[in-house]
Amino acid sequence: MANTVLVTGGAGYIGSHACVELLQAGYQVVVVDNLVNSKIESLKRIQEITGKPLAFYQVDIRDHDALADVFAKESITSVIHFAGLKAVGESCEQPLMYYHNNVYGTMVLLAVMAEANVKQLVFSSSATVYGTNSEIQYTEDLPLGAVNPYGRTKAMIEDMLRDLSAADALKSTGSPWKIALLRYFNPIGAHGSGKIGEDPNGIPNNLMPYVAQVAIGKLVQLSVFGDDYPTPDGTGIRDYIHVVDLVKGHVKAIEALNGEKFASGGCKAYNLGAGKGCSVLEIISTFEKITGRKVNYRIAPRRAGDLAEYFADPSLALKELNWKVEKTLEDMVADTWNWQVKNPQGYN
Ligand code: NAD
Ligand code: UFG
Fold this sequence. Notes:
Rossmann fold; two-stranded parallel ribbon; 11 helices; binds nicotinamide-adenine-dinucleotide
């Protein structure tokens, strides 16, 4: 019998791509999502792409009994936990909403998992847990220090998961927790079919969806936040990663949790990034080259809280998960554009 993976937040941007990858790799998929930031249409599209069914429960992960019911009905063997709120600015305005949803929600999920004796978990962490560092290429052993409430929810959840795993060492009975913390750099792009992609509500906060909406004429002008950083062209540098490469890392992580490396349990962090940086102006010029559209932009002041430059050292994921990125920046742009053109109003 195929392994069954519970995907929390499976209707969202990254979760929907993960569902496709899992179904294509032969896993059964169960999605739990409260649709606070996604549409049920994405789940239909996943089934169109793969030709395979998935089970869906419209449940909030903070609802213990409803979640326990899902575990009672489905033979879940592992969990990929994407469900969470992710807007940095909103988290500064409404921190308690973020702590309640992300931290408390994860506590409920972990309690239900323990009750059902399902102890394999892949968690969506973020490069944001590194905070401000003197290094620009991040390795997993750098000190952590998130600088906003959203980032702190990720750091707190990581701490909680490390504690949970460490507690296994104090017990002589029961199966141990097996946990992979995947620290994403900047996921962009969309599935090659153009059927699923990023569908932000309102005006996008992030660079790539903003650029795509300017290119298609939905938004008038991109503001480039700062051209006076100590980088070659003065604009911010990030490590962009194709969402399909990113979710392949999750399938590799599930395989690793089932394998020799985690045979006696453990909780380990892995960077998922390309390992190289790209500036805002490089993103714009690649977008213009691939799409033939002009991206209207102006130089604006720096955005509060932004760092000049950072990118991943992804060598641990290569060594222990046998994972590395395969797609180029051109692929990321071409797939973003394909999704944007085919779905100018997102899933609506
Ligand atoms: P998304 O908003 O598209 O997906 C999150 C999904 O979780 C949505 O479908 C939402 O409806 C659901 N959800 C939220 N709270 C829930 C709750 N209490 N109960 C049930 N469902 C709930 O976001 P995404 O970009 O796909 O991100 C997925 C995960 O990856 C998040 O945890 C995010 O913090 C993390 N992450 C994202 C990025 C990024 O740039 N997109 C970077 C690093 C980490
Ligand atoms: N940028 C602009 N104009 C915009 C939006 C962004 O110039 O309209 C610039 C930013 O200043 C930055 C780069 O584009 O230099 C990327 O910005 P994003 O907002 O796309 O992404 P961030 O690197 O700020 O943050 C993202 C997620 C976070 C996550 C982090 C992990 O939004 O949630 O990656 O590295 F924590």
